[in-house]
């Protein structure tokens, strides 16, 4: 059995041709992206297949389709390319280029940061913002992250942190769902109740049982409704009229302002853990880092 050091790797150009063809599903499209001819792309992929002694694609007049072996190999290729891209970002960070790498929980990235980002881009057009949405804990020593928009700060005792806000939840719904008048006085809800399941973090997010009890709707029990593990998907479900939602105030400001969601009750409960901006001390050496922190605080 050959040692790992003895294994000869394929040419990087051939691997890139394979990845691009896999993403586009077409040799011609891959050729356009890589500024090559379809024949050159096809030749590089065949050389890669010969090197690996496997068939990566099945070919037809409509394009190319990954074989099971090709799909398995693509997963490794994409992971390797992502590592290389992260390394390049890290090198750019060390050179002090005008860029900030923002890691964030998906809902915070899409529902809180994105709606306000135009303000930052207008004020600092010379600074690139790279946003990476993730639920995974961020290791600042192993990633290019400069900042992380996090739920709670207990996992980052060695890092710098700024408290952003503590959110609140209250019932909201699309006006298209409300075919019957909403009457808070009757203390009765006749609509599906959208649930959000955060797993182990769910203890910090009030659910319908808690809200009904706190609102003293003691005769009302939660109705069945779709359950989502992502807050952003639950908000999309409410917008689509799939039920009523205990919406987080900071994440649905735009939808409330433009009338796509309606607040059904003034009674609200706090999300019992604040959101934080987490960053290592080295981030402050980067241009615009201090300004970004101040801008974040201005949004709260």
Automatic annotation (TrEMBL):
The keyword Transcription applies. Keywords: DNA-binding, Repressor, Transcription, Transcription regulation. CDD domains: PBP2_GcdR_TrpI_HvrB_AmpR_like. Gene3D superfamilies: Periplasmic binding protein-like II (3.40.190.10), Winged helix-like DNA-binding domain superfamily/Winged helix DNA-binding domain (1.10.10.10). Pfam families: HTH_1, LysR_substrate. GO terms for molecular function: DNA-binding transcription factor activity; sequence-specific DNA binding. Transmembrane segments: none annotated. GO terms for biological process: DNA-templated transcription. The keyword Acyltransferase does not apply. InterPro entries: LysR-type_TF_proteobact-type (IPR058163), LysR_HTH_N (IPR000847), LysR_subst-bd (IPR005119), WH-like_DNA-bd_sf (IPR036388), WH_DNA-bd_sf (IPR036390). Belongs to the LysR transcriptional regulatory family. This is Bacterial regulatory helix-turn-helix, lysR family protein.
